[in-house]
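Long-time lurker. I teach an intro course on protein structure, and each term I like to show students one example going from raw sequence to a predicted 3D structure in C-alpha cell notation. This year I'd like something fresh instead of my usual example. Would anyone be willing to generate the C-alpha cells for the chain below so I can use it in lecture? Attribution to the forum is fine with me.
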Amino acid sequence: MVETNNNFKGNKKEKKQKANTLKEEILKEIENALDPSKDKEGSLFYDLAKKTGEMLALENVTTTRIRKVFNEVKVLDRRKRVDDKNTLKFELKKLRARIAYLAGRFKEAKNFYEIIDKSIGLVENEKWTFENFRDFFEAIVAYNRFFAEKE
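-- Reply from a regular --
Happy to contribute to a lecture. Here you go:
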C-alpha cells in the first residue's frame, strides 16, 4: 500500500509514477470496496477515494474540472428518483462519454476516466448502487480539494 502524502514534492516524472501506482492500486481494489464481507466499515471505500483525490492532485487535475462532472452526477441523482432503471443505465453511459471527453481534452484526466469508468461498470452490473457511486465521487472531490494546490 502506498502511503498518501499531500506534501509529495517531486519532479514531473516522479509525480506521474506515483499517480500511476495509485491508479493501479485503486483499480485492483475497487471491486472489494463496499463488499460487506471485505469492507464492513467502508475503510477501503474511503481509502480508495482518498488515493484517487491524491492521484488527481499529482496529475494537476483541478477540483473545478472534477466538480463540473460531479454536478452532473448530482443532477442524475435527483432525476433517478423519478425515472426507471433503464433510464439510469442510459444516463450512466452518457456520463461515461462526458468523462471520456474530459480525458480526451485534458490528458491528465485519463487515469480518472479509467477509475470512474470501472465505477460506472460496478453500478451497471449492480455490484454498487448509484448512491455508492455518488458517495465515492463526492469523496474524491473532497480529497482532491485537500491534496490540490490552490486553484
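Some talking points for your students: Residues 85-105 form the longest helix (21 residues). Confidence is low (pLDDT under 50) at residues 1-6.
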